[in-house]
Each structure stands twice: as C-alpha cells, then as structure tokens.
Amino acid sequence: MSTSLEAADSDTMDMSLLFQPLEVGDVTIPNRIGMSAMSRNRADPKRMPSHLMKKYYLQRALGGAGLIISEATLISPHGAQFDRCPGIWNSEQVAAWKKITNVVHLAGSKMYCQLWHLGRLSHPDPNGMVYSPSAIQASGEKYCFHYLLGELDFVVPSAIEDPFVLVKQFKDAAVNAKAAGFDGVEIHGAAGFLVHQFLDTSANIRTDEWGGSPEKRTRFALEVLKACKEVFGINVSLKISPAGGFNDSGMPLQETLDTYRHLVAEVDKLGLSYISLYRHNAHKDPIVDGKRRGTPHDLVASYGPYIKQSKIFVVGGVTPMEAAELIRTEQVAGVFFGMPWLSHPDLAKRIKHGKNLDNLVAMPFLYGDTQAGVDPRVGYTDYPSVTY
Ligand SMILES: Cc1cc2nc3c(=O)[nH]c(=O)nc-3n(C[C@H](O)[C@H](O)[C@H](O)COP(=O)(O)O)c2cc1C
C-alpha cells in the first residue's frame, strides 16, 4: 500500500476525527484506529506466545494503535492451518500472554484476545477430531494446510453432538484471557470458522435447535457471547463477515440479510462493546462454477441500522480518508486496519503526522514458515518506522 497522505485535501477531510478517544465497553481507547486480528504464525511449537510476538505487538502499540486485537488464538488444542499459531487453554500460555498485554498497556494501548475455533477447517492433527455443526466437508482451498506436514486437505467433520461443550470452551478461554490481562475478547465469527459455520446454511443443515431458521442458526453465536459476557461483562465483541467467500462460506443475498440482521439485532440487545463488520474481499473469494462463492454487499448500510447500542467498527480495504469520512458521517465509531499495520508498525502515528504509507508487504513472510527455515523476524518485526 502506498498512500500519500500529504496529497490528501485536508480542507475537506478532518483527519483529527480519527484521533478522538472512544469508549469501547468500559475502557476508553485513545483513538479510532484499531489493529485487526492477524495470524502471523510466530508462537512456539507448544502454541505459547513468544518473546518475538511481544516485540511485534509492542511496536504497534508504540505506533499508536488504539485497540489491538490479538491474532486468532486457539481456545483448545485442535489443529489449525499453521503449526505456530498461539493458544489460550493452559496456564503457561496465560503467563506468556500476560507479558504481552503488560507491555501493550504500558505503551498506552488496549488489547482484546480473539478467540478462535476452526470447526471443519481444523487440521485433523493433533487428536484426529474435527467438528462442525454438520458433517459437510469444506470445499476448495487445497493449499490450506501447506504450512504443515501430513494431511493437506480439509476433512469430513463430525457433527457436534452437544454445542454447549464448545460454548464452555469459549468461556474457559475467556476466563484465561482475563487472567492474561486482556481488556476484552473478540469472538471470531468470520471467515468460515466455527461460529460462522453455525450461521451459514452451506455448513449447517442441522434440524435440531441449532440449525434451520435464522433464530436457530444464530443461537450458537449468541450462547458463546453470553458465556463470555459472564466473564468480561460488556467487554465482549464479535467479528462477522456476512459477505462470505473465504473458506467456503456464504449464502444467497436474502438468506444472508435475514440471518445477519437477526444476529446483529439480538447480539446488540446483549450489550457488546463493538461489532466488527469484515467487508467482502474479492481476492479471497474464489470463482466457483463461473461465479463468486461469496455475496458482496454493503455491510455498513445493510446491518448498521440494526445495531443501536454496540459500537460499529468496519474492516477490509479501509483507507485513512475513508475511515475519517465513515466516522464523520457517524456510520461507524471506529475502524480496523489489517495489512497496513502489518507493514507499518507506526501506522497511527504516520496517519496523524501525514506520513506516507510506503512500506511494501513482504508477502512470502506473512506466516513465517519455520518448516522452510525462514527467520521469523523477517517480514514481522523488521518493518521500519519513520522518524518524527
Ligand atoms: C496475514 C493475515 C492474517 C490474518 N489473520 C486473521 C485472524 O487471525 N483473524 C481474523 O479475524 N482476521 C484475520 N485476517 C483478516 C484481517 O483481520 C482483516 O480483517 C483483513 O486483512 C482486512 O483488513 P485490511 O484490508 O485492512 O487488511 C488476517 C489478514 C492477514 C493479512
């Protein structure tokens, strides 16, 4: 991304709107510029957050991130796409995360833990068990496990017998996140993972109380959020990607609108800190039978009016100028950036001081890849900041 902020017409766009503090749940974040969850595959082999991860998050807190969302963090030892994504199911992981939240807080930022279960997208290692609402294998994405040895494709999952077993795992992880010093938790309800699978008729064909109507398909997300609220109160949030496409997700438009309007309205009644709307990304949406797998539509316009209490954040291809405009017009309270934070540790400071966003993303190093002997620091903690 190369954006000349100096070239922006500062007469028509008030960028200072991005730097107003905001109450999110019961904490105040210093600005409206969040850092979105990004898996970077730099934990240790026992899925322990590493010293290097601490450096990475500290760099971005010092760079002015108002609210940092941790990379997706496993709530239990089920398999993931990567061998080095972190977990939060045991006390060693809690202690390691605490070192990270401590330095982030010292640098003036707040941090949420993104709680993650992959459902049918899990790798069958380490215990051979892959669960989903229904026994439907995710299609496509044959490269999905290319960072791992062994099985390379998604497998047919077992239908979850009692979803409350999984709800409890989310709650236990929230208890651990609290002990680790996080300010809240974001439930990963996007990108085709477990919570999303319950919402989506292409992964959920259950005929019990957890499938069928929008009311029943949204039940799992609501139960998870309620359970986490018992731990964190209002400091619980949800990320959703109704437009789908990624990881074999997505429904026809009317079914999508019916499902997600019901979801956000019910979620909003629970009292969440924020709801994050992850916009459609054409690059992550495969063409299947000549058309897109996903259902692109305007998320802020479609769902914003159904969210009355929770703050609305938007993520996905947002530019600083667009962010300021969305906030000025009160369509959203704040924004998350993903890739721009990845390659600019000082993103918020650059925006504030009108500096260029000119660090190119080192694509081959997005996920480290220890199997290939890649130095985990490269393309992770070595992006330069500018001098102020
Ligand atoms: C390397 C990488 C890893 C990501 N990992 C996650 C993740 O763990 N959890 C998640 O919710 N989104 C993940 N995302 C999506 C981002 O959070 C964000 O929603 C997306 O990149 C769109 O924002 P952007 O256009 O500003 O990059 C990831 C994106 C990238 C580029």
From TrEMBL:
It comes from the Eukaryota. CDD domains: OYE_like_FMN. Residues 18-357 form the NADH:flavin oxidoreductase/NADH oxidase N-terminal domain. GO terms for molecular function: FMN binding; oxidoreductase activity. It holds the Pfam family Oxidored_FMN. SUPFAM superfamilies: FMN-linked oxidoreductases. InterPro entries: Aldolase_TIM (IPR013785), OxRdtase_FMN_N (IPR001155), Oye-like (IPR045247). Transmembrane segments: none annotated. PANTHER family: NADH OXIDOREDUCTASE-RELATED, NADPH DEHYDROGENASE 2-RELATED. This is Oxidored-FMN domain-containing protein. It comes from Mycena indigotica.
